[in-house]
Structure formats: C-alpha cells, structure tokens
Amino acid sequence: MSPRWRKVLKDLWGNKTRTLLAVMAIAAGVFAVGAISTAYFAISHDIDPSYAAIHPAHGEIVAEPFDDALVKAIERLPGVEEAEGRVVLGNMSILLGPDKKRPLTLMAAEDLSALRLDHLRLLSGSWPGKLEMVILPDQFTRTPSQFAQTGDRVQVELPDGRIRALRVSGMAQDLNNGSSDLAVYAYVNLQTLDALGLPRAFNRLYFRASSATPTEADVRAAARAIESRFTHSDIAVFQSLVRPPNQHPMHAAAVGLLGVMAFVGLLLLAMGGFLVSNIISMLLAQQVRQIGIMKAIGARPDQVTGMYIMLATSFGAVALVIALPSAPLAGYALAQIMVSLLSFNLQGFRVFPASLLLMLVMGLLVPWLATLLPVHNVLRISTHTAIATYGTSAEVSSHWIDRLVERFRGLSRPGLISLRNVLRRKGRLGLTLAALALAGAAFMSVFTTRASVILSFDQLLPLCFADLNLDFDRAYRAEAILQTVQSLPGVVHVEAWATTTAELLDAEGHTIVDRFNIVAPPLNSRFITHPPIIEGRWLSAGDQNALVINMQISHDHPELRVGDTLRLRVNGRNASFVIVGKFTWVEGDSMAYASYARISQLLGEAGRARTYRVMAESSVPAFQDLVGARVFGALKERGYTPVITTGAAGRNIVAAGADGVAAGIMILALLAVAVGGIGLTSTMSMNVLERTREIGVMRAIGATNGAIRQMVVLEGVLVGVLSWLIALGLSFPLSHLLCAGVGMALLKRPLDYVFAWESVVIWLALVIVISALASLGPALNAARLTVRDALTYE
C-alpha cells in the first residue's frame, strides 16, 4: 500500500472523534433524504393503485327509492359496465349521553363482504348480523371511534324518535367515507333495516363506465344515460356525482403534499451538503501543514486531491452503512402518517431504487463534490506558507467584524472569548448557520402553515356551519320552528335556509354539467359576514335570480363568467340565474349560493325549510352542546326530531385536518432540526480541537474547568441565537411557499396567510436548548484536557 493511502487510513482511524463527527453529519443527511424520498415514492406509487384495488365506482346517483330490477336494467345500458344499489339513510343519531348525541349515517347492502363496487375492508371484529353494525374509523386519525368499541351496544335514535340498540360487530374501512365529529358512518345489512322498520329500497346507485380505459367524459356520458333511465321510470334524481376514473379522490391533495415533501427534502439535501462541506473544510484546515510537506517532496495536485476525495468517500461509505438500513423504515413510517390525511392503504414495505440512488448521491457524490473546492483552495497556498502554518491555530483576522467585537464592553471575559471564537472561522460559521437557520425556518413555517389552514377554513365554515345546525327529514313551517328556537335561553338568532341540487342546461335543454349543490340563505343572513369572494360580489338585498358559484365549477367550466345568465333545472323546473360572483371552496366540491326566497319557491317549499342555522351566545363547545340539548328538547316536545350538529364539531374537523398536515410537515422539520444539531455538534467539536493549544494556555494561567465549559457552551448558544435571527427572516418566504403549496392542494388557491408568532418564541427556546446540548460534549472534552496534552497538541 502506497504512503498516501496509508495516510488516508491513518486519518480515518487515528482521530476517531473527527471521523465519528464526519460520519454522523453525512449519515444524518443521508437518513433525512432517504426517509423523505421513501415516503414520497411510497405515497405517489400507492395512492391510485390502492384506490383501484377496492374496484371503485366511477360515479354515484342519488335518487328516489328504486329496486334491483332497475339496477339490472341499468347494467344493460351501453357504456355501463357495472351497477350496484345501496341504501343510505341519515337523520339518525348515536346517543352519547342524556344531553349529547352525534349524527349517524347508516349505509346498507345485502352482503357487505361481497360488494362489487367500493369494497369494504374489515379491520377488526366480524361482518354485522341482524341488529349489528360495523363502524368506520376516524376520518383523519384512522383510529377506532371514541364512542364505541367492538362488542359494545349503542343506542340509536331513529328518524321517528324511536330508540333502538345496535351491537358494534367490528370496524371496517371505506376509502370514500370516514367518521368524524360531524357524523358517524356505519354499515348494516338489509335484515337490520327490516328489524328497525326502516325502508330497504335502494336510494343510491354506484356504477362504472364500460370503456377499457374510461375517461371522465365516458363517465359523464354513462351518468347521463343512467339519469335518462331513471327519468323513464318516473324516478327523480337528486344528485349525480362523477369521480375521476380509478383516481383517488384526494389525488390532487396528495400531489400538493408530495410537492411540499419534495421541497423540504431538497432543503435537507442542501443542509447535508453544507455539513459535508463544513467537515471537509475543517479537516483540511487542520492538515494545511501536511499538504505543504507533501507538495515539498513532490506530490502532484491530482494525487493530493485524490487522497482527500478518497477520505471523504470513506466517510460517506461508512455513513451509508449506518443510514441505509434505517432510512427506508423511517420513510415508510412517515408515509403511514401522511396516509391518515389521504385515506388510502400502502401496498406494503419496500425499498425504492430511486430512493437508494438519492441516498448514494448524498453519501458518496455530495462528499466528493464538497471536497473539490476546499482542496483546490488549500492547493493554491504556496508550499512555504503551508509549511509555516503551525498545528491547528487559527489567528483572528483584521476583518471589520473582528474589530467591532474588540470594542464590545460589558461582557465577561469568557463571553468576549466566546464571541470572538464564534467569528473566528467565518466560512465554517456561515455553513453552520445555514443548516441551523434552514431547520429553524422549516420549524416556524410548520406552525404558520397550520395557523393559515385554520384561518382559511374559518373563512369557509360560516358558509355551511353555524353554532348549531338543525336538519329535518322534511320541510316544516319556518315560522313555527323560528319562534320555538328563538325564545330559548342562550339563542341569539335563528335563520331558515334551503338546500337543493341543480343541473346546468344548454340552449337545447341538455345537461352540460353534473348536478351541483345550491345553498340558499336569506339575503340578509347574519351568518355570512365575510364571504370568501374572489371575483364579483356576494348576494345582496333585492337579488332574486342571483347566483354565486365556487371555483370548482369555474375550474371545470372556465367559459362561465360573472354576468352570464345560466339556465338551471331545479326540482324538475327550469329557471334562469345570473352569476354575480365566484367564491373559493374546498377542492373537489361543486357548490353555489342563491337566495332562500327563490330556491324555496322552486322547491315548492315557500315559507318552509328543512335546514336552520342557530347563533348561540357563546362559541364554547360545552355551551353549544347545552344549547343544542335545549333546542332538541323544545322541538321534540312539539313533535319535531331534528339532527343537530354544532359548529364546534366542524371546527374540530378543520383542526384535526390542520394538525394532520402540520404533523407530516413537522416530522420533516424535526429531521432538519436533527441534521442542524449534528452539524452544530461537529462544528463545536472541531472548534475545540483547533483551539486545543489555546485552551492549554488558559488552563496554565488558571482557567477552571467550569470557565472552559461555560466558554464552549456559550459559544454554541451564540451560534444558535444567530441562526434564530436568520431563521426568522427565512421563515417568511418559506412559510409563504408552504402555504401556497398546501393551499393549492386543498383549495386551488394559496391559504389565507397568518404568521404564527408563537413559533418564534418556541424556536428560540428550542434552539438554545439544542445549541447547549450540542456544545456540552465538546465542552466536557475541552475541560478534561490536561495542560501538558493541550500544549503539545498539533
């Protein structure tokens, strides 16, 4: 073995602390990049195949009751491959206590284990028998329902007010539905409907288009043919929904979240590059004299460069051995957390070649590239200057920053020394600050993203949720309901609303857009005070045929403009409406707003309503529950049985979704924090090594162990505080980027931005703790040095 390769081995093994720091710094970057890339590829590869595995329906028709004979007739229609009928019943509640209940939606089929479309997956327990049900897990956490477990008997209030007990036989997964604070979803068989005295006639039809590779146009054509068949049988169609064929409903949201993950992954890759460059630069700074000697005895530049490239590659190879086994496992765990937001199943653990390639690049190529510039800079130093460099000393320069530090007054001597040492190696300090600042900016941006998600949806919630939402199975005289509710303690205001679906017609009367929902509040509604208008205006007093459409309709049909007159079919009656504005809403839902007076007239329900909104004196959830119990009791005495949902339940869902998004991004941010912490540890350790002789001199003139430890720890904390200041500045553009990405995924627009200032204080406290802990090891090592060892160190 030639002398230069023996030197590489000696550098690797001779200074174990330096080697360990270099390896851990690279391993941290490799691990972070490997974990994020594994999660990225797992989600992007599995989301649509996982959804396709349930044999999903391409569309759904909500209609008046129909029988199996009609289902079989629809299956024979051209363009229809399969059709399946089911029963979906609402206006029921799970009784959780004397004054508390949760809305229940029951879905029923003959054999739940043999559904042909939208297969269910049994998670625990068994399929339900008579007077049994399987419940769906929480929509966001995918955890068992908090109100009941397998084997429990729960009290169910039926639409007519009767109370019956149903046993929970198990838990099932439906990728298209999930329970939440707003409603519990459960499946039963048709025998249970018979036993409960509930109608067993189908009211939902699920279908698939027959094309080998169906497009959305094929599905729409099939839906129109099915609607015509319903009309031919004198059965009213209430709603027609079309799904992107074999594409997960949350595919667009997944693309946005994956983009956020990829962006954070790039940040971590950059941080890893900073750390590697820092480590190599520190190593070369220690060996300038050795390089000068090698040049003096005839070493060529390419030989010296190759030697240090091999050393850096060796660091990377050892780091890969450490990180490769664990990074894919961590990435798979991260993907499982993100899956809870998107509701699909991963197709099992596996290692992705592209992820391995990224880890190899991070572990081998990045150290190799990071070595070239520092080696080139050292080789430019003359042989005489290089040999004259003694040991690991580092003189303080005459830079203006250094001169400014010399004028500081009021700091203790250890504090002045720490401040000077922080600025001693400005290039190294810059790389360390870059890594820590990126970590801090990512951390603060997570809090801002969560706050912006909540703010954005808080702007939308009043469009659908009040403090109390009352829904009845049929329209009742509005004046009677309003008088009953308005007189109750805790109630501030009540309004009657109307809801329906509509079809957009062309000049010949043909449907040109799927049925969409119309919500109709009174024109002077006190619940919608700041509508999220992005074009035009909101409904105003005097409007009769005004319509405000959401951006999903506008996105699907960009030809629609503010001022256009539309022909709609509502409740079988044609009517003209004028678009007066556009508003933002949740991705995927087509929705519009019109006046209560006009819609109730078209529904034949003038002066009556099925839906009411109640404003309470307080938005505290417990108070809303109390007022809800009063409202339910008063209405039940008069023969009404509404389903009541609280605004707090809607806000809980938004908070759960925001927490889920934040949790996924926070894990990525914590990876960045870990990489930054390791980088600071390596920097502080190398700083101590460089100042070994200086520490020896201080010990010789009386510096105590405590003073040495204080100096090193204070130096690390100063670096942390400086990185906090930089992170604060970086957090604004970074959080704007994250909010734009998440907003486009969820709302087709950037989120309403609000900076979370509490994150600034939290990160300051956290970075001080991280910096102190990262400096503690080097500080203890510095304090253990004897005067003799320190003065003889080179």
Model description:
The protein is an alpha+beta fold and 794 residues long. 53% of the residues lie in helices and 20% in strands. It is built from 23 helices and 20 strands. The strands form two sheets. The protein has a six-stranded mixed β-barrel with strand order 2-3-8-5-7-6. Strand 12 and strand 13 form a beta hairpin. Helix 19 runs parallel beside helix 22. 45% of the residues are buried.
How do the strands and helices of this protein lay out in sequence?
Elements: H1 3-14, H2 16-52, E1 59-66, H3 68-75, E2 80-97, E3 100-109, E4 121-125, E5 132-135, E6 153-157, E7 163-173, E8 184-189, H4 190-196, E9 202-209, H5 216-232, E10 237-242, H6 251-286, H7 288-296, H8 301-323, H9 327-342, H10 353-379, H11 383-388, H12 400-406, H13 413-422, H14 426-460, E11 468-477, H15 478-486, E12 491-505, E13 511-520, E14 533-536, E15 546-550, H16 551-556, E16 565-570, E17 573-583, E18 591-593, H17 596-602, E19 608-616, H18 621-637, E20 643-646, H19 647-690, H20 692-700, H21 705-747, H22 758-784, H23 787-791
Parallel strand pairs: 3-8, 5-7, 13-18, 15-17
Antiparallel strand pairs: 1-9, 1-10, 2-3, 2-6, 2-9, 4-7, 5-8, 6-7, 11-19, 11-20, 12-13, 12-16, 12-19, 14-17, 15-18, 16-17
Helix pairs in contact: 1-8, 2-6, 2-8, 2-9, 2-10, 2-19, 6-10, 6-14, 6-19, 6-21, 8-10, 9-19, 13-21, 14-19, 14-21, 14-22, 19-22, 21-22
Helix/strand structural class: alpha+beta
Strand residues, percent: 15-25%
- Taken from the alpha-carbon principal axes, the silhouette is elongated
Instruction: Give the neighbour order of strands across the main sheet.
Output: 2-3-8-5-7-6
The residue ranges in which pLDDT falls below 50 over 5 or more consecutive positions are 391-398
Mean of pLDDT: 80
Q: Give the distance, in angstroms, between the N- and C-terminal Cα atoms.
A: 26 Å
Share of helix, binned: 40-55%
